[in-house]
Amino acid sequence: MIASLIDHPESKTLEFKRDLSSPRLVLRSLVAFANSAGGHLILGVADDRRIIGIDNPLDEEERLSNLIADSISPRLVPSIEMITVEGETLLVVEVFLSGMRPHFLKSEGLQAGTYVRLGSTNRQADPQLIAELQRGVAGVSFDALPMPDLTLDALDLQSIREDFEGRKTIEERSLQSLRILVKDQGRLVPSQGGVLLYGRDRRQYFDDAWIQCGRFMGDDKADIFDHLDIHAPFPRAVEEILLFLKKHAMRGADFSEIRRKDLWSIPVRILREVVINALVHADYSHRGSPIRVAFFDNRIEIESPGLLLPGLTIEDIKQGVSQIRNPVIARVFRELEFVEQWGSGIPGIYRIAKDENLPEPTIEELAGRIRFTVHLAEILPLTREQSRKGGAQSAPVTAPVTAPVTAPVTAPVTAPVAAPVGAYVSKLLRLLGEREPLGNEDIRLAFGLKSRRRLRETYLAPALSAGLIQYTLPDKPNSRLQKYRLTEKGSEMNAGG
Q1: Which fold has domain 420-497?
Q2: HEC profile of 358-408
Q3: Per-residue CA distances from 75 to 34, 132, 314, 426 (Å)
Q4: Phi, then psi, of 155 in degrees rounded to 5
Q5: How do 187-190 and 223-230 pair as beta strands?
Q6: pLDDT digits (tens, 9 = 90+) for 37-60
Q7: CB 298 within 8 A of CB 217
Q8: 12: nearest Cα among 252, 307, 278
Q9: For residues 147 and 191, is the Cβ–Cβ distance under 8 A?
Q10: Residue 240 — pLDDT band, cuts 50, 70, 90?
Q11: Which of 228, 277, 248 is nearest to 409 (CA)?
Q12: Intervals of CATH 3.30.950.30 along the chain
């Protein structure tokens, strides 16, 4: 088995070295393996993977053992053995994922000497990553930690009740069950996961907990055509992201025809799973950038902050191995039926791609981020001429999508409306033309709707997405005092309808 490793390229769990002439580099790799997913380091193999062997292997084995004992803290005890391949003796060091992580080089200290494995290289861990390694060993998740300075008022209870309508009565006991509220020093306070999901002022505490969407011209980020910043509660953000992607993925038919013939030119089922996975598994302790969704002519990239959890590799998650980084967020998404069972999402994505003859999606572990790339079956070119005309798509999103839309799109749509709106949106425009502005309850009662969710997904979200209505309180989209009125575009369409 060890000999067969030499046929493989270096990776997150495999590295080759000629000898011990650079002991610090060897030690860094061993520390990184122990902190990440374990691995093998093989001495006596050249950079081109030629087997050159180790001179005086017994002496080198003893030297390596002493270096490890003297240089790494906490104490690391890997397996070291000598094997013979093609007549040459190699030293094989096997390191397991450590339950005492983070390990670090004593000479560099904890903050500067902690390393993790990123692809086939070693990366110095920053303070946030070191803290995550420590929490992982202690069995504590970031999103389950209390926020002792906050009270129940920090949560948007109205949004929680609306999302769980018909599923769960929202009271203190159920919020504790969901771990949106946790006990701290004898009192109930929001958890970090609770604030991430439903905090009234989430960005005040988590600067990068939002989603940035962009449609780019070509296959790089040189020219951006359209963008949307999403700050809605995470369960609602899923459909806002998909609405943005669908808006740029129409093939010249009106919305009802698209839904009837399934003419989306992007793999919506795959993208939904990838979006949910990014929201549930992002490392929100990481500082520096939000979740990013980038739509290019030939692919869609979804990036989330954080590396894979210790013990996981990309091959593991493709096979369905799952570890939950954010159990509070994951529990809420499970209760809302966004996910069916843990570990099924990623393998399901690859099955769908295969069944639909799509290019295989790719997963990359970058510097502090995970990128999931969904390759499109055909190129969707967006030209400068289309940009000057105001849009690449020929119809707005004006009808409900199959999954619940639980929040309106909160940024303006740059492309104009170029096709008739659906009957539900037309009905809403007529109502607002007679009695604007109106709030959620006013509209719901006027239409005799029992379900607030149906109001959002059938009327409000499509109209907002198409730029036909607008908020009276644009800076507070989730305010209880929020009302809606027609935009100039909506008034023109209403007058012409």
Answers
A1: Arc Repressor Mutant, subunit A (1.10.10)
A2: CCCCEEEECCCEEEEEEECCCCCCCCHHHHHHCCCCCCCCCCCCCCCCCCC
A3: 11, 20, 28, 69
A4: -100, 145
A5: unpaired
A6: 999 999 999 988 899 999 999 999
A7: no
A8: 307
A9: yes
A10: very high
A11: 228
A12: 2-126
Q: 286-301 burial string, b = 16+ CB within 10 Å, else e?
A: beeebbbbbbbbebbb
Are the C-beta atoms of 198 and 143 separated by less than 8 Å? no
DSSP string, 459-476: IIHHHHHTTSEEESSTT-
Q: Which residues pair with 51 in a beta bridge?
A: 45
* Six token digits for residue 230: 């999403």
Return the minimum-mean-pLDDT range out of 410-414, 446-450, 474-478: 410-414
pLDDT at residue 421 in the model: 52
Q: Does domain 211-394 have CATH number 3.30.565.60?
A: yes
Domain 2-126, CATH: 3.30.950.30
Record the tokens describing residue 214, joined without a space. 């962009």
Q: Hey, what amino acid is at 98? A: S
Using CA of residue 372, residue 373, residue 377, residue 378, what is the dihedral sign?
A: positive
Give the Cα separation of 295 and 220 in Å (integer).
Answer: 10
Centre a 10 Å sphere on the Cβ of residue 375 and count the other Cβ atoms it contains: 16
Contacts of 471 (CB under 8 A, 6+ apart): 477, 482, 483, 484
Among 68-77, 215-224, 383-392, which stretch is predicted with the lowest mean pLDDT? 383-392
H helix runs in 219-267, sequence order: 234-247, 255-261
